[in-house]
Amino acid sequence: MSFMFNPHPYDDPTAVNRPKLDEGTVRSILSGTKETAGYISDLLIEKLKNNTGPVVLALDGYIGAQFRQMINLLSQNLSQKSIQVTALHFADVYKSSAQLDAEFTENLKEDREKDPVLLFGKLFKENYEDLLDKEKLARLENELKDTKAGENHNVIIVYGNGCTIKRLRPLYDLVLYFDVTPKEVILRAKKGMFTNLGDPIAKPVKSLLRRCYYVDFEVAGHLRWDLIKSDAINFYVVSNDPDHLYLLPRESFSAITSALAKYPFRCKPVYLEGVWGGHYIRKLRNLPDSMVNCAWVFDLIPLEVSIIVEAGKHQLEFPFFTFVQKEGTALMGADCVKKFGGYFPIRFNYDDSYHSSGNMSIQVHSGHDYNVENYGEHGRQDESYYVVTTGHDAKTYIGFNEDVDPDEFIGEAKRSEKEFTPVDYRKYVNHIHSRPGVQVMLPAGTIHSSGRNQVVLEIGSLTIGSYTYKMYDYLRADLDGKPRPIHTYHGEKVLRKERTTSWVNENLVQEPRIIRSGDDWAEYIIGEHDLLYFSLRRFEFEKTIEDDTKGKFHVLTLVDGEKVIIQSLDDPERSYKQNYLDVVVVPANMGRYVVRNLGNQPVCIHKTMLKDGFINDRT
After folding, report:
1. CB under 8 Å to 408, separation ≥6 — which residues?
2. pLDDT digits 0-9 by tens, 575-593
3. Which of 62, 421, 515, 539 has the highest Cβ tally under 10 A?
4. Crossing angle, helix 320-332 and helix 217-229, to 10 degrees?
């Protein structure tokens, strides 16, 4: 898995969730940008009538949020009522761009020996206040205090990322939060629609996005989290389309997320092309012909995907992580929230090399200590592959062959990185013959690759960034024509050389073992190991199978079969109809549920859950 630097703009229309919402909630949703401005203008006028002095409005939002159109519309509306509007741009309070760049040198090191294309970084652990000029912030605070103490009946709009920090929050009469989905943020970055926090002009897009992942997204996400927890947002604004905003009163937003957390749900996938990309999912999901191929399908990468809720005639799209921040305990269970700091701890995507031009790179991921020390991460990057479908001669590469010298391979890989020489990777790297239903576990440190001509469901652990160290990539160029980066410096440090064919066969490719069964159904453990904190399982059934979340979320993927419905046994209306290869989350609070086959053929469903005792695991 890689950072989402190049998402395809295609919007998948199929992932729509339809929780039952009361009529009052649906009616309270305001649709349209002009309509939103009109409503807020009227509300400000009402507040002015009840205030002895001015009204102060805060417009904050996630990175990439656009405020100027709303400010202009509000100003136009209010000026017609002879109300003066003053807009204060919070960007003016930041430290200088040069000062911020200097302060982030530890987070964004430039060492091309270790990181050839400057992809990695270290997560910024501070908050917005640490990006601000103390004197400028104090001046703004005093200006707002003095203005509020006056008797002028005007409107002050403070706008920009970070303006709702705790220190200033008591000075605002109204707070609007403009949320933006992760894919839309990336697309806006590539269109030149915003800069990094504190920058007057935009950096090159790859530098801008690297800064975003390690700094800007971090501070913005944590502020949004605090605003949600403290109930400080008066109106939540769905702002993916600046020309068609949706305005949700705080109570309505809460009602929607609370309802959704009681249902099985599916996130909206993001599709990415790649040099080894295949064509299976492109055909299955009728992706646009403009796509060269489809390498990655981010079905449930928690920090990269969004979720759509149908509310009456409206379709509201917001970041999945906003939903996680709002409904963490109901969604994931109290122990999970405590263990993983409120983050959704497992990620899911498809790697599609079906009828492609080649394998994924020979690669490795880093473990807990390395990730924490070098990147400030939450823990290790483990992965696993579940083989969904294969073409001719498909292989999965995993571990080293017996009786080879891994150091010799590392030497060959280093020489290839410098001199562009071929490496006989098959000599060194073990492979298994892929077939549908094979589960391969890939704990950090295991050399591996998904070979050409297959689709795998990749399931991995929690990291904010992506730490894929390519050891060898067949000397090929990427889609942009540039050589793909190799990361032997980091790869050598984290490779587990003792994981050879025999160890792999004994530990990482397991025979399914049945744990419960009935007349026409069974549940199997297909992958479980001390090195992974999640359990990989499979349902096999003809008509129905029942289960119980028991306070832990389940993630179900229909890997064989046409269509099923996942229903709460206590309230069958809480359901989701799942199609082939949909990835569906069953929330922790669901309790007892049933999966019913809506087709004629037998069904296989891949199930992922946190292992028993995960709370004591070292992530």
Report:
1. 428
2. 999 999 999 999 999 999 9
3. 62
4. 50
Tell me how far the alpha carbon of residue 280 is from its chain's centroid: 23
Question: Sheet harboring 306-311: ordered strands across?
Answer: 16-17, 306-311, 314-319
Tokens of 307: 């979720």
Q: In this structure, are residues 434 and 378 in contact, taking their beta carbons and an 8 Å threshold?
A: no
CB-based contact 162:219 (threshold 8 Å): yes
CB 474 within 8 A of CB 353: no
Q: Which two tokens stand for residue 394?
A: 């498909």
Give the CA radius of gyration of the chain.
25
Token pair of 407 as six digits: 């150091």
Q: In terms of residues, how long is the chain?
A: 619
Separation CA 141–CA 136 (nearest Å): 9
Kindly report the CA angle at 140 between 134 and 143, in degrees rounded to 5? 140
Please list the helix, strand and coil fractions of the chain in percent, rounded to the nearest 5, in that order. 30, 30, 40
What's the CA dihedral at 558, 390, 462, 528 to 10 degrees?
A: 80
The tens digit of pLDDT for each residue in 523-556 reads 999 999 999 999 999 999 999 999 999 999 999 9
Mean pLDDT value of segment 348-359: 97
Stated pTM of the model: 0.97
Which residues fall within 8 angstroms of residue 619, CB to CB, at 6 or more apart? 339, 340, 345, 368, 378, 379, 380, 461, 462, 533
Q: Dihedrals φ, ψ of 272, to 5°?
A: -135, 135
Query: The tokens 């913005």 sit on which residue?
Result: 220
| pLDDT over threshold 80, residue 570 | yes
Q: What is the pLDDT of residue 619?
A: 63
Does residue 373 surpass a pLDDT of 80? yes
For residue 460, give the nearest of 299, 257, 615 by alpha carbon. 299
State how far the alpha carbon of 47 is from the alpha carbons of 17, 42, 50, 598, in Å.
36, 9, 5, 54
Residues 6+ apart with CB under 8 A from 82: none
Q: State yes or no: pLDDT of 483 exceeds 70.
A: yes
**What is the pLDDT confidence band of residue 1, given thresholds at 50, 70 and 90?**
very low
In the sheet where 575-579 sits, what is the strand order?
A: 544-548, 592-597, 563-568, 575-579
The pair of structure tokens assigned to 441 is 């576990």
For residue 63, the model assigns a pLDDT of 98
Rounded CA separation 360/394 (Å): 12
Q: List, for residues 278-289, the tens digit of each pLDDT value.
A: 999 999 999 999
Query: What residues form DSSP beta bridges with 527?
Result: 536
- Would you say 94 and 200 are in contact if contact means Cβ atoms under 8 Å apart? no
Helix (H) or strand (E) holding 112: none
Structure tokens at 108: 């964004």
> By the 8 A CB rule, do 309 and 345 touch?
no
Per-residue H/E/C for 283-349: HHCCCCCCCCCECEEEEECCCCCEEEEEECCEEEEEEHHHHHHHHHHHHHCHHHHHHCCCCCCEEEE
Mention every residue, 6+ apart, whose C-beta is less than 8 A from residue 125: 218, 376
Average pLDDT, the chain: 97
**Rounded-to-integer distance, Cα 271 and Cα 281, Å:** 10
> How confident is residue 3, by pLDDT bands cut at 50, 70 and 90?
low
Res 98: pLDDT: 98
Q: In this structure, how many other beta carbons lie within 10 angstroms of the beta carbon of residue 137?
A: 18
The C-alpha atoms of residue 4 and residue 116 are separated, in whole angstroms, by 18
- Burial of residue 54 (number of CB atoms within 10 Å: 0-12, 13-18, 19+): buried
